[in-house]
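Hey, does this match?
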Amino acid sequence: MKKFFHSVWVIAYREFLRFLQDRSRVISSFTMPIIFLVIFGAGFGELIGQMMPGVDYIQFMYPGILSMTVLMGSMMSGVSIVWDREFGFLKEVLVSPLSRSGILLGKATGAAGIAVMQGIVMLVLAPFVGVSLSWGIVLKLVPLVIILSISMSGLGLLIGARMRSQQGFQLIMQLVMFPMMFLSGIFFPLAGTARWLEVLSKFNPVTYGIDAIRQVFLGSEAAGVTIFGHTMGIMDSALMVLVVGIVLLLGAVRSFNRQEQ
């Protein structure tokens, strides 16, 4: 057990250092969400005002932008495996005394830690763009951000464990990430969309992460996701994301162990 936790710590620490040393990655991780906030927020502002009367579009968008920041940071965890495999570092790690499961979970922990840090920075920036926050809201948001980041890092690692090139990983990641983003309610309320789009969104785990975060931001003004007549509360949505995340992480560990036998 000590070996396992040591493996998790060593790999997570390495992932964190790699992120901080890559300035272009640090800058781009915050630039993209802000661009989406400005462009899509301005474009959908009037539409959201009609669909959710009384809700400012920035207040509506910001929980989605926060979730998108966490999603993008977490799912990029998989590229770390592909990079290490391409440049031979993964072989060196695998012949070390480190636990294989610990290696993968260390990457998940490192990616989740980076995503949480990015999310906290976005929370710090919120008052500067007119989004009102209180300490109570922040304390509720941090656990939700952690759950979403760990769960989505599991998906990134599950994909990365099977990929052999960074180009292939980036292509697959785009094919997976962008539909998940647009089918999660980041940019517009799902309640007023086409029926088939609303149904598809309920199979998207990110939908529930954003739903929980938006309910914390907007309170009673945010309608939860409805499944079989039951409206999901904050705890319901968080539990859904957590369960999916556990399944994804277990699948990633199993796939990684098979690929690196």
